[in-house]
Amino acid sequence: MANLTFDSYGKTRVRLTQVLRQGDRHEVVELSAKILFRGKFETSYTKADNSVVLPTDTIKNTVYVVARKNPIQSIEQFCRDLASHFLGSVPHLESVHIEIQQSPWNRINNHGSAFVSGGIERRVATLIATREKEHLESGIHGLEILKTAKSAFSDYLVDEFTTIPPTRDRLFGTVMDADWSYRDGVADYNAAHADIRDVLLSTFADHVSESVQHTLFDMAKAALSAAPLIKEIHLVMPNKHRLLMDLSKFKLSNPNQIFVPTDEPSGYIEARVTAD
């Protein structure tokens, strides 16, 4: 006998670009949304009963309609607007899981209506909502950062397989993912996001690093201190190596100038840090 123990369905990679126009000064909001339903949908699996299914095409269309009725001021609020709509219109929906990734567009020379892509960086928000409660997380994914000074790695554990030499001067590159959860009372998600991003970057730049772990923790600590509305932050910082090229075969020195970027393998470092 077969028993259905878990089910979920919805729509993924719903892409949207919205232009917010205030005279000659425009804002571009570009995002990709994932919306998943959980609730009393089991008979669509076990009894071929489609009467309980809201088509995923309808879920997709709802994203555009809600954006038109409630212009997207922040992706966090847009998550809430979508959740409110679905929970209010589908009686047997018990929880909705919404993930949004926003692609940044930056102004060209402060131009009112011309923009340049922000690259692989994505602003993210995830909301899990029921009719009784919600859990919201915000963050940044794919933020590529590099520092060429104030970075060392030495005095580590050594065994018979260790070949990496200690150094007091190495390149430190990573593609950071950061996710955080807020306390109640956030009035402006855009300002909070900008403040947290700024403090993470400034701490990374100024920190005298003994390891990725050392810098990651101090970045998290600085974010919690600078933004008291954060109750927890999770950072993932893979060590994207750039290896010093041996130019001695060409009778040239290499005083930390020529490096070879390597994508794989990379070190993987993560931590979750909570406020006191």
Q: In summary, what is this structure?
A:
Strand 6 and strand 7 form a beta hairpin. Helices cover 24% and strands 35% of the residues.
Task: Please provide a written account of the structure.
With 276 residues, the protein is an alpha+beta fold. It has two domains: 124 residues, Urate Oxidase; 132 residues, Urate Oxidase. The strands form three sheets. It has an eight-stranded antiparallel sheet with strand order 1-2-3-6-7-8-9-12, covered by helices on one side. It has a two-stranded antiparallel ribbon with strand order 4-5. Strand 1 and strand 2 form a beta hairpin. Helix 2 packs across helix 3 and helix 4 packs antiparallel against helix 5. The longest helix is centred in the C-terminal third of the chain and has 18 residues. It is globular, with a radius of gyration of 23 Å. The N and C termini lie far apart (50 Å).
Features:
Urate Oxidase, 2 domains, two-stranded antiparallel sheet
